């Protein structure tokens, strides 16, 4: 660990001390960013602790806000070159995702109720308020198995257990700490009807009716998620889940997929979601590079925090129609500044 820290300091000094002792074998003067090809901004050019290749913290996706304090491994070294494919065997997938074979009758009834309620709304009402939509699973059960196997492959390769709920672990923040009322400036409340839509999405997943998404492996981006059918604007793609912890416990973490859950007036009460141990497909959705206009164009999801029955929850929602085969991207850095209530009301 000491060696790693020394290297990080050494790296930060690189631009100020270009002449280096050549016996370290690093050839640091020639380090260029693997993404943009530039050797500028040396203080933001991170060296991988395995392959020694360089990456600007702002060229990474998701972007890293600061140079990690501990060891760091580049996207190529972190993602296993050829992930071991999860077997496309129904019983194994059912076990992996703990799929429940619940009574069809009850589920059908629930779907009917939701449809009825939607119809009962007046046209004027539905025009005023844009409602969230539940995702539509792929009809073909074999294709759904392939989608779930792709997620299981990615979770296994990342050493992550499957979970579709926020989790509270001993030694981390307790569930009682997740209090939406503590949000600085207040948090938008998810309307009752949208809460039902979210719950419907959860029940579908429990039955193995997963969102129509495929996790694919890309040698540059690592695991990434693409739409496996057309997805309409305002569709709930997934909730962002993982272990809930206080931000103060995680300030020295290098976890690049930590997500803000609660931005409290009292910073000691702020919470983050850490998806490295337990999570779902959300952790494989990539952030855009919001430094480039091309990156911004790719964005097709919004990450929105809501007060759901008094607790904070983070949802990934389509912010435009998404074509089959399109990769999913959200603005990893942007959402704190661009609180997207205007988009939904
Ligand atoms: Zn770069
Ligand atoms: Zn590397």
UniProtKB/TrEMBL annotation:
<keyword id="KW-0808">Transferase</keyword>
<dbReference type="GO" id="GO:0008270">
    <property type="term" value="F:zinc ion binding"/>
</dbReference>
<keyword id="KW-0489">Methyltransferase</keyword>
<keyword id="KW-0479">Metal-binding</keyword>
<dbReference type="InterPro" id="IPR046341">
    <property type="entry name" value="SET_dom_sf"/>
</dbReference>
<keyword id="KW-0949">S-adenosyl-L-methionine</keyword>
<protein>
    <recommendedName>
        <fullName>[histone H3]-lysine(27) N-methyltransferase</fullName>
        <ecNumber>2.1.1.369</ecNumber>
    </recommendedName>
</protein>
<feature type="domain" description="PHD-type">
    <location>
        <begin position="30"/>
        <end position="80"/>
    </location>
</feature>
<dbReference type="InterPro" id="IPR001965">
    <property type="entry name" value="Znf_PHD"/>
</dbReference>
<dbReference type="GO" id="GO:0006275">
    <property type="term" value="P:regulation of DNA replication"/>
</dbReference>
<feature type="domain" description="SET">
    <location>
        <begin position="43"/>
        <end position="333"/>
    </location>
</feature>
<dbReference type="InterPro" id="IPR019786">
    <property type="entry name" value="Zinc_finger_PHD-type_CS"/>
</dbReference>
<dbReference type="GO" id="GO:0051726">
    <property type="term" value="P:regulation of cell cycle"/>
</dbReference>
<dbReference type="InterPro" id="IPR053114">
    <property type="entry name" value="ATXR5/ATXR6"/>
</dbReference>
<dbReference type="InterPro" id="IPR001214">
    <property type="entry name" value="SET_dom"/>
</dbReference>
<dbReference type="GO" id="GO:0032259">
    <property type="term" value="P:methylation"/>
</dbReference>
<dbReference type="GO" id="GO:0005634">
    <property type="term" value="C:nucleus"/>
</dbReference>
<dbReference type="InterPro" id="IPR011011">
    <property type="entry name" value="Znf_FYVE_PHD"/>
</dbReference>
<dbReference type="Pfam" id="PF00856">
    <property type="entry name" value="SET"/>
</dbReference>
<keyword id="KW-0156">Chromatin regulator</keyword>
<dbReference type="GO" id="GO:0140953">
    <property type="term" value="F:histone H3K27 monomethyltransferase activity"/>
</dbReference>
<keyword id="KW-0862">Zinc</keyword>
<keyword id="KW-0539">Nucleus</keyword>
<keyword id="KW-0863">Zinc-finger</keyword>
<dbReference type="Pfam" id="PF00628">
    <property type="entry name" value="PHD"/>
</dbReference>
<dbReference type="InterPro" id="IPR019787">
    <property type="entry name" value="Znf_PHD-finger"/>
</dbReference>
